């Protein structure tokens, strides 16, 4: 899916993919020698890497730890972003499950798009109130 998604017109291959079970994906990529993923960081989000993955999985420990990629860390050794936000967003999405269950695909897409836009606006406003400067990097 990732390969198909990032080979569509007007898309760019990402430098990093962060996913809960990326070590499983990396094992598959390595065993099949899928060239598309060469040079791409295949990280597991920090929470899952610390709590859900076996210490005996050498590939996961060496190649999927976000701390192994200095470009993801600021000068204090902290991550530039919250990699666990996907988990938090999934919990938020779950609160709409009963509302969306009977929706047609068009209404479902519209509803969730609108809710995401509203949540993003509220998040950016809250960050401004906290004195933070959220921004969106330019599209390449």
Task: Give a quick set of tags describing it.
47% helix, two-stranded parallel sheet, 140 residues, 2 domains, 7 helices, mainly alpha
Give an account of the 3D structure.
It contains 7 helices and 2 strands, in the order H-E-H-E-H-H-H-H-H. The longest helix has 25 residues. The protein is globular, with a radius of gyration of 18 Å. Strands 1-2 form a two-stranded parallel ribbon. Helices cover 47% and strands 4% of the residues. The model has no long low-confidence stretch (mean pLDDT 85). By secondary structure, it is mainly alpha-helical. It folds into 2 domains: 71 residues, no CATH class; 45 residues.
Task: Provide the fold topology.
Layout: H1 2-5, E1 16-18, H2 22-32, E2 41-43, H3 46-51, H4 58-63, H5 85-94, H6 97-100, H7 105-129
Parallel strand pairs: 1-2
Roughly how much helix do the residues carry, as a percent range? 40-55%
Low-pLDDT runs of 5+ residues are none
Number of domains: 2
Sketch the major β-sheet: 2 strands, parallel
| Secondary structure tally, helices | 7
Structural class: mainly alpha
Write the H/E string, N to C.
HEHEHHHHH
| Strand order in space, largest sheet | 1-2
Based on CA atoms alone, the radius of gyration comes out at: 18 Å
What is the 3D shape? Answer: globular
Strand tally, please? 2
Terminal CA distance: 22 Å
Classify the beta-strand content into a percent band: under 5%
Mean pLDDT, to the nearest integer, reads: 85
């Amino acid at each position: 899916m990732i390969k198909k998604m990032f080979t569509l017109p007007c898309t760019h291959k990402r430098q990093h993919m962060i996913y809960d079970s990326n070590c499983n994906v990396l094992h598959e990529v390595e065993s099949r020698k899928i060239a598309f993923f060469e040079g791409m960081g295949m990280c597991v989000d920090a929470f899952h890497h610390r709590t859900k993955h076996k210490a005996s999985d050498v590939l996961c420990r060496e190649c999927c730890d976000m701390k192994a990629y200095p470009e993801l860390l600021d000068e204090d050794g902290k991550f530039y972003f919250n990699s666990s936000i996907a988990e938090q967003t999934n919990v938020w999405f779950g609160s709409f499950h009963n509302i969306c269950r009977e929706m047609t695909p068009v209404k479902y897409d519209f509803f969730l798009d609108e809710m995401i836009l509203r949540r993003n606006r509220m998040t950016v406003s809250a960050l401004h109130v906290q004195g933070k400067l959220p921004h969106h990097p330019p599209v390449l």
